[in-house]
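Annotated sample (chain length 159).
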Amino acid sequence: MTSSEAWKEQTMVQWVQLLLGSFHRWTGRELISRTGRPEDQAAALFAAPFVVVSHGAEEDPILNYGNRVALDLWELDWKPFTKTPSHLTAESVNRAERKRMLAQAASRGFIDDYRGVRISSSGRRFLVEKAMVWNVVDEAGKKLGQAATFSRWSFLPEK
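Output written by the structure step:
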């Protein structure tokens, strides 16, 4: 499956509904316009001009969604992206900070002020600013994963 088709799968359309519903639940705001069918919303989120990523609730969470901007930023196509352990999006020296941030989001439902360094699949480092991280939950409130969105990042000089 190519990246341009991944959002069309019914499981992804359903996941996007959970992402959007959870975002609204925690923030009272909409991440994107929720007009049209769920498939239309999935297409809009995939094409959005900002990063949206998520991972599941596994003990070592695996990325399970990335929109077009996220895939481009991490320099991966859909299949390898959605097989990547979430912790690998940060360099090893930054993983403790990442873990602390995810725990804070887990306990509060969301945070909206995350700043940290991430790393692409080719090793390109970038600073993320003003990221929002939220818990993805079902209608009963059961935690299914976490998601993040941001529109501000800058590439860092090579070490």
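Annotation: Strands lie at 51-56, 63-66, 110-119, 125-137, 143-150, 152-155.
Annotation: The first helix runs from residue 3 to 6.
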